[in-house]
Amino acid sequence: MVMYSSHTHLRLKYLSLGVLVLQTTSLVLTMRYSRTLKEDGPRYLASSAVVSAEVLKILVCTFLVFRENNFSVQAMKQLLKEEVVSKPMETLKLAIPAGIYTLQNNLLYVALSNLDAATYQVTYQLKILTTALFSVSMLGRRLGLYQWLSLLLLMAGVTLVQWPTESGDSEHKVLSTGSQFAGLMAVLMACVSSGFAGVYFEKILKETKQSVWVRNIQLGLFGFVFGFLGMLVYDGQRVRESGMFQGYNTITCTVVVLQALGGLVVAVVIKYADNILKGFATSLSIIMSTLISYFLLEDFNPTRVFFVGAVLVIAATFLYGYESKPASGSTNKTETSVNSAT
């Protein structure tokens, strides 16, 4: 029974990470496309998309809680009352990561509106290092020599994979210095917030045995409140003029679904991987994005630097996993964490 459980755990671990790679790849490509697509009418509001994603996530998590309670409305209401309403202090703890995640999601729209994909993806991988540092400082986690080396290899590999080519210079010229700086600051702030919020949320999850779906409902409710207030503050006039869903189309809806799905996929990854391992999955998605750009979009020419970078990223992934296996006396002790951001 133990062997079966361990085998199932391992299979779900890599399955969830694989789905996360696909989700991250699709989100980056569609989000970038949606922010650069030329349309006749007004462009959709990033703040509105963030709010819509939170609402969708709440609905899906509520359904999952409903299913866990054998589709009993009474049982679900009782559970939510006991875990959310009757424990206000526990619920309020999630206001901090929810607020940070909401800010982070808005920052990513700013980044992808002002930076080309290569610069965005390379810089955003700094969240792996911030997550590692917060894990060490806040959770007392110890990283071995191989793990620190794997982080360095990962950063080197990602940088090489996304190293700007001469064909990308024309796009750089179009972007103004001001917009590039705004995009860069947005990514850097998102990296720090991603690392802190993910580790903070992991710490909360480890302190209680509450259902991860209930936690995500709580997180989503705070996220909705913060996101809605942010939308009114920054885009209130545009919302009053053209409505909250102005500029929505199929691509916009796809971005919203993928963003909501990202939070749910990560909620599953919580049980089977840690924050840093999730970072490696995200890095692999960068390689997929580049390959898709080459074979489908035909706007990227692979070089020797690209292949060297790809090998480094894959090697770093295996190097990190090699260190974590012998160091883990208990699977649950080293493989339960989350980063709910995209």
In words, what does this structure look like?
The chain has 342 residues and is mainly alpha-helical. The protein has one domain. Helices cover 81% and strands 0% of the residues. It is built from 15 helices and no strands. Helix 7 runs antiparallel to helix 13 and helix 13 runs antiparallel to helix 14. The longest helix has 35 residues, at 2-36. It is globular, with a radius of gyration of 20 Å. Residues 167-175 and 323-342 have low confidence and may be disordered.
Our estimate of the beta-strand percent is: under 5%
The chain-level structural class is: mainly alpha
- Main sheet characteristics: none
Radius of gyration: 20 Å
Number of helices: 15
Q: How many separate domains? A: 1
- Give the overall shape, derived from the CA principal axes: globular
Mean pLDDT: 77
Helix-strand pattern: HHHHHHHHHHHHHHH
Helical content band: over 70%
Low-confidence blocks of residues: 167-175, 323-342
Tell me the total number of β-strands. 0
Distance between the termini: 35 Å
Membrane topology: Multi-pass membrane protein
Protein name: Solute carrier family 35 member A3b
Keywords: Golgi apparatus, Membrane, Sugar transport, Transmembrane, Transmembrane helix, Transport
InterPro entries: EmrE-like, Nuc_sug_transpt
